[in-house]
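Support request from a user on the community tier.

User writes: "When I paste my structure tokens into the form, the page sometimes reloads and wipes my input. The last time it worked, I copied everything first. Here is what I submitted, just in case something in the input itself triggers the reload:"
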């Protein structure tokens, strides 16, 4: 074990002095929660108003920090830079679902294009797909809440044809990915949409994960039921002789989940505190690595302790750093100290790289801004590492 997440020379080797200054400015503004709240309200409105100077400001700050570009072709620049340092890419067509059948079919076509592009690149092993990009959220919610017949089919005949179209889109995406050797990471949704997504993802695994992991489900461990769900999913996969594909995250909808549970008077699905989330996340990491022959896991975390735990478990068990069933990932623009130091030691590690028209990826960007301002210590840690590297460079010169 020779990993230090404090090594800023490795972490920022790919960034110029100018890029570091820009990153410092951006994270400095994210320290002020009032500024982030104001920005998340005004920015989408101003972008929709087609105000060129606002578009330019967003493009040169938060967009360039967290997004790979507006088009698939523009991601090539970021992908090439990351590849130079042994970092892979998870491509994400970062557009929220347009609530029409034509919009869903268009999104499916875009996912297919992303797969075809990824297959031509040496360092893009995965793409990310949101089922809400190809399905109405209201349909998912209805299926989530509806009683099920003994056959497992939901008792809502009028939506069966619509759901069949959603399934067909996902099957086409996964079939293309399987043929081209690309993994499909199915994003997690809010708890009131998640059940049909889980069922569909397992159905897809039955079809495509018989020999290797092609389809991965995403588990948000800030939900108190997800560790048990991991064990159940693994049990099903073993019974069906599948490779279980799992991406582990802490989660992205915590405040929304709590507010909705309080409003509608049901028990919150969220863990009672951060310690419980951390405990379950690390238990999930341990379980997956303990079952490395039948589980392919992506440790998608900005938590240094959790990443170090996974690396230590691999070391203790004599598992090669580049074992094909263990992959690490962080968001583009965040936690470079984890990503690039893992890559330096030969681990499979990637950046989650969204792309899309600036107006369409605004919801994603706003979540990144809110995440950085709400996660205790995240912005301060980013700033401290940037300052440390700038000081090191000045001393070196």
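"...and here is what came back when it finally went through:"
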């Amino acid at each position: 074990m020779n990993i230090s997440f404090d090594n800023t020379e490795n972490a920022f080797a790919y960034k110029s002095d100018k890029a570091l200054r820009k990153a410092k400015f951006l994270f400095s503004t994210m320290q002020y929660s009032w500024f982030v709240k104001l920005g998340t309200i005004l920015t989408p409105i101003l972008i929709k108003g087609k105000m060129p100077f606002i578009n330019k400001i967003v493009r040169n700050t938060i967009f360039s920090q967290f997004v790979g570009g507006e088009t698939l072709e523009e991601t090539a620049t970021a992908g090439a830079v990351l590849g130079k340092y042994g970092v892979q890419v998870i491509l994400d067509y970062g557009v929220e679902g347009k609530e029409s059948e034509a919009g869903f079919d268009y999104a499916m076509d875009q996912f297919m294009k992303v797969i075809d592009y990824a297959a031509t690149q040496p360092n893009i092993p995965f793409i990310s797909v949101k089922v809400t990009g190809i399905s109405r959220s209201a349909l998912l919610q209805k299926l989530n809440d509806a009683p099920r017949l003994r056959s497992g089919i939901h008792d809502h005949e009028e939506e069966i044809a619509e759901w069949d179209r959603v399934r067909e889109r996902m099957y086409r995406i996964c079939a293309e990915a399987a043929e081209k050797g690309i993994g499909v990471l199915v994003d997690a949704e809010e708890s009131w949409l998640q059940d049909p997504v889980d069922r569909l993802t397992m159905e897809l695994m039955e079809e495509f994960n018989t020999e290797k992991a092609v389809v991965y489900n995403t588990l948000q461990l800030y939900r108190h039921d997800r560790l048990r769900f991991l064990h159940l999913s693994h049990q099903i996969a073993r019974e069906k002789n599948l490779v279980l594909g799992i991406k582990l995250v802490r989660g992205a909808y915590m405040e929304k989940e709590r507010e909705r549970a309080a409003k509608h008077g049901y028990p919150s699905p969220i863990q009672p505190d951060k310690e419980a989330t951390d405990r379950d996340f690390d238990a999930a990491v341990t379980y997956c690595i303990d079952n490395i022959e039948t589980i392919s896991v992506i440790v998608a975390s900005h938590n240094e302790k959790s990443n170090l735990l996974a690396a230590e478990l691999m070391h203790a068990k004599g598992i090669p750093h580049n074992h094909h069933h263990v992959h690490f990932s962080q968001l583009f623009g965040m936690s470079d100290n984890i990503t690039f130091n893992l890559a330096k030691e030969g681990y499979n590690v990637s950046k989650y790289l969204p792309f899309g028209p600036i107006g369409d990826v605004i919801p994603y960007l706003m979540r990144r801004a809110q995440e950085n301002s709400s996660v205790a210590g995240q912005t301060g840690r980013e700033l401290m590492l940037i300052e440390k590297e700038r000081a090191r460079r000045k001393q070196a010169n």
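Agent notes: The reload is a front-end session timeout and is unrelated to the input. The CA atoms of residues 260 and 372 lie 22 Å apart. Residues 157-180 form the longest helix (24 residues). Escalated to web team.
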